[in-house]
């Protein structure tokens, strides 16, 4: 069962693909969405399924090289960063993601 409603997910997909097209055309670096996760994590599994089309980077916080992230997020996964900055945790907030993607798109358009 997915937490998202179909229309919201379609809107996010459309916006993200439009953003990628616009950023690619302007030669701006593409945004990086990072998911901090561990096993087991049903919310992480749900988030991975929903965000599969946008998958850029996933960090398993249980690996020894990610111990700092484990210390920080062990009770809060899934956690998402966009371009290295905290974005959201626990559930995917499509409207928040949409707003941040629009902001990136505007910055990319303004910088070209």
From TrEMBL:
Pfam families: Glrx-like. The keyword Transport applies. Keywords: Electron transport, Transport. It comes from the Eukaryota. InterPro entries: Glutaredoxin-like, Glutaredoxin-like_YDR286C, Thioredoxin-like_sf. The keyword Electron transport applies. SUPFAM superfamilies: Thioredoxin-like. Gene3D superfamilies: Glutaredoxin. Belongs to the glutaredoxin family. This is Glutaredoxin-like protein. It comes from Balaenoptera acutorostrata. The lineage of its organism: Eukaryota, Metazoa, Chordata, Craniata, Vertebrata.
């Amino acid at each position: 069962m997915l937490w998202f409603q179909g229309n919201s997910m379609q809107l996010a997909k459309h916006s993200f693909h439009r953003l990628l097209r616009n950023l690619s055309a302007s030669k701006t670096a593409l945004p990086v969405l990072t998911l901090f996760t561990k096993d087991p994590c049903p919310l992480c599994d749900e988030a991975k399924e929903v965000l599969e089309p946008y998958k850029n980077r996933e960090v398993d916080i249980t690996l020894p090289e990610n111990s700092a992230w484990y210390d920080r997020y062990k009770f809060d996964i899934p956690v998402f960063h966009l371009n290295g900055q905290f974005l959201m945790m626990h559930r995917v907030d499509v409207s928040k993601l949409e707003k941040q993607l629009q902001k990136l798109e505007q910055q990319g358009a303004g910088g070209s």
